Amino acid sequence: MDPTDTLARAITIAMTPWDLDVVRAASGPPGATLPAAEQRARGVAADLRADVVVWVTPGGEQSVLWFYDAESQHVGSRVVDAPLPYDEPTAAAVALTLKTLLRTSAVAPPAERLAVPRARPEPAVHLEAMAGLRLLAPRTAEPRGGIGVAWWTRLAGLRAGLGMAVTLGPGVDIGSEIFTGRYTDASLSPSVRARFDLGQRIVLEPHIGGTLHVTTLDGVVAPDLGGIHASRIDGSLDVGAVIAIRLAANLDVGVFASTSYMTRYQTYTVGDRNVLDLSSLTGELGLRLALGVF
User: Fold this and answer.
1) Helix (H) or strand (E) holding 131
2) At what angle do helices 88-101 and 5-15 cross, to 10 degrees?
3) Closest by Cα among 20, 19, 32 to 1
4) Do 57 and 66 contact (CB within 8 A), yes or no?
5) How far apart are CA 294 and CA 291, in angstroms?
6) What is the mean pLDDT of residues 33-60?
7) Which of 238, 243, 211, 217 is nearest to 229 (CA)?
8) N or C: which end of the chain has fewer CB within 10 A?
9) pLDDT at res. 33
10) Where are the domains of the chain?
């Protein structure tokens, strides 16, 4: 990260026997304060698809050489008894020091590799809480809340998961000349997901799935005020995404948006007159909190 020409040349020469690609990144170094520096280095590694991120920080008459190993998520450092900028002999010595440090990473050839630190496991199970607003029809929206759980793994390097959520709301009031009542919907939603890092703290999580809707319509019919109760079970096909900010290694908060296609129109009639006609497409927008538990 932002090396001098002298240091970049020395590192490239030192890494040549290992057949590694050394890329100079012009953005500022991640810094010397953990865990913020580790989070920034993780973002750089994701952006550049790098296995290791290396940077140097000044310290008066000394300096500190840092490296982040993307596979193990390990941060290592070594104090260098020389200030910045390095002259050629010092840069060569620093490059050899880096090569020694990298022998504890998976980028070193197996014959030269020391014990590689075990990767800190990413939380496999996330608990989720959602709150949002669902648009059922033009000028008809319902506040919603729910809880969910997601199980995550890695498939061919892709962070993939399965989710299940239960959501419900207070319902919406329906009023017309012949009917007054309330419509409610309790939902169970399984989904397939993926998770992508968009930078140091930003996460994109698209999903596709379905929802089982248990809907009810209760009310009275004018002029005799007779009661009506109707229950239906319907399904929908869903697609959506979450854009989240990672607040900690196991905690993120984000905004979600989704759309659902109902497998049939939700039309309710009294006699020959419609009292409720919902759209086959519904949309939802809200906030989601996800906590990795284990």
Assistant:
1) strand 125-137
2) 40
3) 32
4) yes
5) 9
6) 86
7) 217
8) C
9) 83
10) 5-112, 125-292
pLDDT digits (tens, 9 = 90+) for 154-194: 887 789 999 999 999 999 998 888 889 999 999 999 999 99
Number of Cα atoms under 13 Å in the Cβ half of residue 188: 4
| Cα angle 133-236-240, degrees, rounded to a multiple of 5 | 55
- How is residue 10 written in tokens? 């020395």
Amino acid at 199: G
Question: How far is Cα 3 from Cα 190, in angstroms, rounded to an integer?
Answer: 48
Question: CA-to-CA distance for 251 and 254, rounded, in angstroms?
Answer: 10
**Do the Cβ atoms of 61 and 83 come closer than 8 Å?**
yes
One-letter identity of residue 98: L
**What is the CB-side half-sphere exposure of residue 199 using CA atoms within 13 A?**
5
Tokens representing residue 166 in the block: 């239960």
The pair of structure tokens assigned to 41 is: 């280095």
Nearest to 143 by CA among 165, 180, 164, 168: 168
Q: Is the pLDDT of residue 30 over 60?
A: yes
Residues in the chain: 294
Contact 10, 16 (CB under 8 A): no
- CA dist., res. 33 & res. 19, Å (int): 31
pLDDT of residue 43: 85
DSSP 122: P
Q: Are 255 and 242 in contact (CB under 8 A)?
A: yes
Alpha-carbon span 151 to 144, nearest angstrom: 23
**Gap between the Cα atoms of 72 and 107, Å rounded:** 11
DSSP structural state of residue 283: E
Q: Give the distance between the most distant pair of CA atoms in the chain.
A: 98
| CATH code for the structural domain at 125-292 | 2.40.160.20
CB 7 within 8 A of CB 94: yes
Separation in Å, CA 125 to CA 115, 183, 249, 293: 29, 34, 13, 6
